[in-house]
Amino acid sequence: MNKKVGSDKLKKGILYIVAVLLAAITFLPLIITLLSSFKTNEDILLGMFSLPKKWVFNNYPSAVETANAIRSIGNSLFVAVATLIATVIIALPAAYVLARKPYKYLKGVYFLFMAGVMVPVHSTLVSISKISSSFGARNSYFFLILIYVAFNLSQAIFLFTGYIGSLDRGLDEAAKIDGCGDGRMLISIMAPICKPIIATEAILVFIYGYSELIFSLILISDSSKYTVSRAMLNFTSNYTTSYGPQFAFVIMSMIPMLIIYLLLHEKVESGILAGAIKG
Amino acid sequence: MFFSSSKYRKTFLKSMLFVLPGVAITVIFVIYPVINTFWLSLNDWNGVATSPVSWVGLNNYIKVFTSEKFWNSMLNAVYFMIGGFVVLMPVAFGMALLVTSKIRFTKFFKASYLMPVMLGTTAVGLMWTFMLNSDFGIFAQFLRAVGLGDAVINWLATPTVNIWCVVLVNEWMYAGYNMLIFAAGIVAIPGDVHDAALLDGCTGLKKVIYVIIPLCKNMFMVFSVLCVTGCLKAFDIVWAMTNGGPIDSSATPAVLLYTQGFQYKLMGRSSAIGIILLVLGLVLSVLLNNVIFKQDRE
């Protein structure tokens, strides 16, 4: 018996060691980047794997000044929030109709949205760039947001339709008897009930919108409108000699997401899982 | 009679109004661009709106399929796939076993492992580019410290080595993401199965191999579909770390599509790659889904 307890303890010990090791591998690059963002250039060139010899804090102001760091982070936050609001406003009514109405044409509509899942963004790049120049929509956030919405709709409608479909129809019936039309039903009954799935989808769209790269690469050329990914890449390829501010920018770009993650990590976990399993 | 009643017509029209914005956006920004890309892939065009678009038939496809760059990018996509199945899958599954095991702090570990997904691909790519720097990066410093200074090369500028660096960074970023998928599968295993396994004396590694893995088969299938289709689409992480270079050696098909189209202005050829990616993605997911379907029926 004692022997068994001992081997169980040993096994658990091994599990702990592996778990801590994996966590260390996850955090190490982040810690080193954070430390490097407080170093002078000479200090960085001596090697990253050490504490700063002298803690300097001017890398951050310098990144804000030369790379427009704050502005680009603000741009990305704006685009991400606008995308998630637009996605929910457009997807929820559509999902409600798809889940609740019997019309035949809706099968075709649902199929159209699901076909959207299969299309990789890259197959549309050239055409979207062409459309944007013929509409004079380069550097337009409105156009960029519409595209982001287009590529998030399928997922949103899939999740919302599934959620509404699983709700009890008795609720609708009761509301209908009370004289509740489709519009009111959507706003005062469906929207509040769907809050959990809306939150899930909002998190997924936000993660996508904040760090999206390829469309902002082809559609945004005005440097004051750069999103954060774009601005970072631009900064690191143009200021190759001064490393401190680059580390500072990378750290700053991560802060909004890390704050969201710290506050909502369980919601984020369930959201990412729901998004992944849909396929 | 019922069909012509005005109330029916009103709710019918209202239902159309509800789906219309979504349908319009999908058609304009997803469906039409795909059709248009297909048409452009049969033409030559330099991307300038006023320049002529000239019909060349299948020429772009022939050029793509006979170019070494394209096959190299496909090879890189295959490296992504190999990395996915050989490194990412075992690591993610191992993490899933850890966070569903009986050790303490599993919530903390789970949240930690998932964290890299939140950081943004570009930020992750740049961060690791610094780590891999051959002058001051942690690997260079470590190798020099243990006297293996000769092994320090410019990893991201050496063909084949560079794409593997990118692949491994990709696994670092997505291990936690895939852990969630496997963990969901493991948690869904009913308690009686665990009890029965315990009664039969099936524990530890034996239990993982004979009980948990077979019961998580669906999750392995989900992983496979995501991994295979994701490999074809890999762009951000490659672009952030190497720009696909040097001379396209680390380019994935999506990166090649971008450089051909938006740097060399070969829009026709870029479109052809886009259509190839679309078709290949469809074929592979149908194939994988049918494999799932078949196994489920048996």
Structure write-up:
- The complex is a heterodimer of chains A (279) and B (298).
- Chain A has 279 residues and is mainly α.
- Chain A is 79% helix and 0% strand.
- The radius of gyration of chain A is 24 Å and the shape is globular.
- The two termini of chain A are 48 Å apart.
- Chain B has 298 residues and is mainly α.
- Chain B has a single domain, classed as MetI-like (MetI-like fold).
- Helices cover 74% and strands 1% of the residues of chain B.
- Chain B is globular.
- Chain B starts with 5 loop residues before the first helix and ends with a helix.
Report the CATH architecture of chain B. Answer: Orthogonal Bundle
Number of structural domains of chain B: 1
Class from secondary-structure proportions of chain A: mainly alpha
CATH class of the largest domain in chain A: Mainly Alpha
Percent of sequence in beta strands of chain A:
under 5%
Uncertain runs of chain B are none
- Taking pLDDT < 50 over at least 5 consecutive residues as the criterion, the unreliable ranges of chain A are none
Number of domains of chain A: 2
Helix content of chain A: over 70%
Roughly how much helix do the residues of chain B carry, as a percent range? over 70%
Shape of chain A: globular
Based on CA atoms alone, the radius of gyration of chain B comes out at 25 Å
